[in-house]
Design goal:
Elements: H1 10-21, E1 42-46, H2 54-69, E2 72-76, H3 81-89, E3 95-99, H4 100-108, E4 121-137, E5 152-154, H5 161-172, E6 181-183, H6 187-196, E7 201-206, H7 211-217, E8 222-225, H8 229-238, E9 243-247, E10 258-270, H9 275-286, H10 315-323
Parallel strand pairs: 1-2, 1-3, 5-6, 5-7
Antiparallel strand pairs: 3-10, 4-7, 4-8, 4-10, 9-10
Helix pairs in contact: 2-9, 6-7, 9-10
């Protein structure tokens, strides 16, 4: 485990052994009490692949947290959202990057977490949007979600976040996967298949601009299918981890903003982290956004940090935001 408890002396050790012998269980029994900030001399942030966005942001956050709390904090590369939730569950990290929808699935025990819910995680706050982009080409004539009916549409792998996004957006428009010819393609395959005319549209959940869509736009005229405001509101009402978003004018050669929705990249922690420590972690990040040099830093703001959060907020983080 990454949690490093400081040496508390032989008296405590003997007491813990006595409690365990009396059936106190793992962790020293009911009399052991809650941990405090002083019980930690190391914190681990699990992020994503080294070429992605989570990892470099995690390095910046680790430095900010180290400076604010005095506790050595490091960013660890990982397999990203779903794996990060498992790391928190197993006690192999204290802080994790995750998409808001994946965090919700973890606490509910749905989609990729059908084998069991994870009940020891809480939110710090949202970071930046992971935009749901429904990508097509201008010459397909597809101008609305309803126009996807009967079309070949890439929806990502079954059990993936993108697949869930596609399924839920179709649902809000009175459709199911049975109403389209669903194709399980990744972003690169979606780009190639759209370019070759083998599919008509693709759901892509990613921060904009997305490389695969930019590559497509280099050889064809890209069109983004809008999610209308009323449908976005309906979606958010039913699935609170979504937030309103847009693909801005100028992206992929678009001449006007296209409304859509997003899930959000967020930070989660284990619930047993002390309130004062999580308060300081939250403060370290959201009070120092001017020190975040990554392009996504412009989206990280205290005033929007609770948007799209569908899981419990840690009391320490909530105290910070209540004071803002």
């Amino acid at each position: 485990m990454n949690k490093k408890f400081k040496f508390l002396g032989t008296t405590f050790a003997a007491t813990a052994l006595l409690l365990a012998a009396c059936g106190g269980g793992e962790g020293g029994g009911e009399s052991s009490g809650e941990t405090t900030k002083e019980d930690y001399d190391f914190l681990s942030i699990v992020t994503g692949g080294t070429q992605g966005t989570y990892y470099p942001l995690g390095g910046t956050f680790a430095n900010l947290i180290t400076d604010e709390t005095g506790i050595k904090t490091t960013a660890e590369s990982s397999q990203a959202s779903a794996a990060n939730m498992t790391a928190l569950k197993d006690g192999n990290a204290e802080i994790a990057f995750v998409q808001t929808d994946v965090a919700f699935y973890a606490t509910e025990g749905t989609f990729m977490f059908e084998d069991g819910a994870i009940d020891n995680i809480a939110a710090i706050g949202a970071l930046y949007p992971e935009t749901i982009q429904i990508v097509t080409l201008a010459d397909t004539g597809i101008a609305s979600v309803e126009d996807l009916r009967g079309k070949k549409v890439s929806v990502g792998a079954p059990g993936s976040g993108t697949y869930a996004n596609a399924e839920q957006i179709l649902e809000i428009h009175g459709m199911t996967m049975d109403d389209i010819d669903a194709q399980a393609l990744d972003f690169g395959e979606s780009q190639e298949s759209l370019q070759a005319g083998q599919i008509d549209a693709a759901f892509i959940t990613s921060g904009t601009p997305t490389g695969a869509v930019e590559a497509l736009n280099a050889v064809a005229e890209v069109s983004i299918v809008p999610v209308a405001a009323d449908k976005a509101a309906e979606l958010i009402e039913k699935y609170p981890y979504y937030a309103e978003d847009k693909v801005p004018s100028g992206t992929y050669g678009l001449t006007e903003d296209v409304p859509t929705v997003s899930v959000l990249a967020m930070l989660a922690v284990t619930k047993d982290l002390p309130e004062d420590l999580v308060y300081e972690i939250t403060k370290a990040i959201y009070d120092n956004t001017d020190q975040i040099t990554h392009a996504k830093g412009e989206y990280i703001k205290a005033e929007t940090a609770l948007d799209g959060i569908g899981i419990d907020v840690h009391p320490g983080a909530q105290r910070y935001f209540d004071e803002k």
